[in-house]
Each structure stands twice: as structure tokens, then as C-alpha cells.
Design a protein that fits this description.
Blueprint (H helix, E strand, L loop, with lengths): L1 H24 L14 H9 L60 E2 L1 E4 L1 E2 L12 E2 L1 H13 L3 E2 L14 E8 L2 H14 L3 E5 L11 H9 L3 E5 L12 H19 L5 E3 L7 H10 L2 E7 L2 E2 L7 E5 L6 H8 L1
Parallel strand pairs: 2-6, 2-12, 3-4, 5-6, 6-7, 7-8, 9-10, 10-12
Antiparallel strand pairs: 1-11
Helix pairs in contact: 3-4, 6-7
This protein binds zinc ion.
The site of zinc ion (ZN) has 5 residues, from β6.
Length: 321
């Protein structure tokens, strides 16, 4: 009986011991720090959250903006550059200006005389030197005739090489005295001249349109251009420059039936701009100095010999020789 009781007690204690052992093996070490297995994940997730504090990088991008402030300032300065060549007189124009037929006449020497007005008596003028005595003019022309010169105009230019000792007689501005004193001598000696006409000089006290037509119709006088207003062409803008040339040409052609092909620069003043515009309207441009011309020189810087009241015959002869 006692033996039966002991066995029963041992069996119960064995069951308790097994139960205790089983319960111990089901646990792992982490469980010791967590109240329940499900609390682990939310905790781990929470530890990854602090990372956003490590990403302050985006604060670096906004700063590099201020560059565009440099652009606006450099723009306004480039303006002053287009004012470089105001009145430089480029005399070294290319000498080669071959025109059809004129090529053969390259290198021809031709005196181009420049007169203005005339008066036998001392002129009542601020520029008395412009008034050559008609008797002096006659003597000068006789010298040319007697020495084999041939009077030519620009209409003869293409045939200049055929002419022996060509000479050109020109009058600037357009004075009534050209008609009164000179025209009779032209008819008397069969002399051809060129008048560079300033259109504004036409009027009741100057040369008249009837005088111009009569002289033109005689075949002894060719009218070329000396602008509308005798303005210094180096001082005006392109529009005015064009007007001074184009309008003069139009009016002279309307009056005489012949359009000018040559321009005498008023006051002998010209520059590169003047020449460039003259090339659009003429075949020839004339200055007011430097002596005997040669056709090897530029057709737009043609030289002339000034003849004034004080020019003696000996001086005249020397200037054309
Ligand atoms: Zn003039």
C-alpha cells in the first residue's frame, strides 16, 4: 500500500517537472526585454525614424541663384562705338576707276580750270578774288587756243584718248555774270565750258532758268551739279546728302534735258561718306585744288586749278603747262 502511494507521488512530481522544462524551452533571449513579442516591431520601426534628421542636404540648393544680376549692366555700354569715322578725309582712294572706254585714256594729263564769277570793275564783294576780269579770261582762253589745247567737257571723257592737249574750263556756283560776260566769249571763240550749278542760285538777281536753257541749247555750256544749297557735304547726314545730289540732278535734267554726271564738292570739301554717295549719283567728283589732273587719279577726287582775279597771265600759263 505504501509502495502504491509513493509511485503516485513520484508520477505527479515527474509531470510537474516535465511541464516546467517544457515551458522553459519555449522562450528565447529577447523575450526577456520585451513584454510581448508584438512590441518588438513597432519599437524597431521607431528606431529607423530618426534618420530624417540626417538629410539637411536640400538646404544647399537655393543659394546659387544671384548670378543673373550680372547680365543687365554690361548691355548699355556698346552704343558709343558706331561714331568712329566722323570727318576723316581719306585721300588715298583707289586710283583705278576704269569706266568703259576710259581705260584707254588712263594716264592722260588734263588741266581743269576753276573759275567763279567775273567783273571788269573792282567787285563789291567780300570775296573779290572770285571775280576774274573778262578781259583776263579772254587772254587766258586765247593762250589755250593758240597753244593747241582742245576744250572738252565730261561728255567727251570716253574719247579723251583721241584728243590732243585736252583742257576743261569750269565755273562754280552759277552767277549771272557767266551769262553776261563769259557766254559771249564762248560764242566768239567757240569755247566749251562746264558750269557747276548750285540750284538755289537761280533767281531774279542771279542766273535765270532762261539763261541756263539758252546756254545749254547753244552746245557750248554743259551744266553739272554743285548741290542744292552749297552746304558743306561733310557736315550733313546721309538723307540730306542724298537729297542734295538727287534733287539737283532731277531739277537740272528737268530744265535742260540732260542729267548731270559730275559733282563739284561745295567748298572743295568731301570725305569718304560724300564720295560714297557721289558714286551713286555721278561718274565724277571734283575737288578745288592740287593743280593739273591726271586720269590715272581717282575720278572722285579730280584736281582743279584755281584761277582768281589776281592770277596773272604768266602764272596762268605756268599752271596749265
Ligand atoms: Zn561753290
Amino acid at each position: 500500500m505504501k509502495c502504491h502511494m509513493m509511485r503516485r507521488i513520484m508520477r505527479i512530481t515527474l509531470i510537474f517537472m516535465l511541464a516546467f522544462l517544457f515551458a522553459s524551452c519555449g522562450r528565447n533571449e529577447d523575450d526577456r526585454y520585451a513584454s510581448t513579442p508584438y512590441e518588438v516591431e513597432p519599437f524597431v520601426a521607431a528606431t529607423s525614424v530618426p534618420s530624417p534628421t540626417l538629410s539637411p542636404a536640400p538646404t544647399l540648393t537655393p543659394t546659387p541663384e544671384p548670378v543673373p544680376t550680372f547680365d543687365p549692366t554690361p548691355e548699355p555700354t556698346p552704343e558709343p562705338t558706331p561714331t568712329p569715322s566722323p570727318t576723316p578725309i581719306p585721300t588715298p582712294e583707289p586710283t583705278a576707276t576704269p569706266t568703259p572706254g576710259a581705260a584707254a585714256s588712263a594716264g592722260i594729263r588734263i588741266p581743269i580750270l576753276m573759275y567763279h564769277s567775273s567783273s571788269e570793275d573792282p567787285p563789291n564783294s567780300s570775296l573779290p578774288e572770285l571775280y576774274v576780269r573778262p578781259s583776263a579770261f579772254e587772254s587766258q582762253m586765247l593762250h589755250l587756243i593758240e597753244n593747241g589745247f582742245t576744250f572738252v567737257t565730261f561728255d567727251d571723257w570716253d574719247y579723251l584718248y583721241r584728243i590732243e592737249k585736252p583742257v576743261m574750263v569750269t565755273f562754280d556756283d552759277g552767277y549771272r555774270t557767266n551769262y553776261r560776260d563769259i557766254f559771249p566769249l564762248l560764242k566768239q571763240y567757240d569755247i566749251k565750258i562746264t558750269i557747276f550749278l548750285t540750284w538755289e542760285n537761280i533767281g531774279p538777281y542771279g542766273i535765270t532758268q532762261d539763261m541756263i536753257r539758252e546756254m545749254h541749247d547753244s552746245g557750248l555750256v554743259v551744266f553739272e551739279a554743285h548741290t542744292m544749297t552749297h552746304v558743306d557735304l561733310t557736315t550733313v547726314n546721309a538723307a540730306r546728302l542724298r537729297h542734295e545730289m538727287a534733287e539737283t540732278n532731277r531739277l537740272i535734267e528737268e530744265l535742260t534735258g540732260r542729267a548731270p554726271i559730275a559733282l563739284a564738292y561745295p567748298g572743295g570739301r568731301f570725305n569718304a561718306n560724300v564720295i560714297a554717295m557721289a558714286r551713286e549719283h555721278y561718274r565724277f567728283g571734283l575737288r578745288a585744288d592740287l593743280g593739273v589732273h591726271n586720269t590715272s587719279l581717282s575720278d572722285f577726287e579730280m584736281r582743279r586749278i584755281r584761277v582768281s582775279r589776281g592770277t596773272g597771265l604768266a602764272s596762268f600759263i605756268n599752271s596749265v603747262s
